[in-house]
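For reference, the entry.
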Amino acid sequence: MKDCNAEAKQKGLKGKERKDFMKGCLKKDSAAADAGGKPKNAAQQRMKDCNAEAKSKALEGKERKDFMKSCLKK
């Protein structure tokens, strides 16, 4: 979001143009992280690691939820 805000400011976007730009920019960054791209920060990396571990353990439902909760607190 920080990068998208900086780019919008640099381009001098305001109003609807800024809103549309931000929407596209944030969606692009999110898709890159979701598509196996390199996560932008430690929290995203932790979420990716915990999801992979939960998947490898074949956890579902409440067990997965409880595992994710404890994993993300580490």
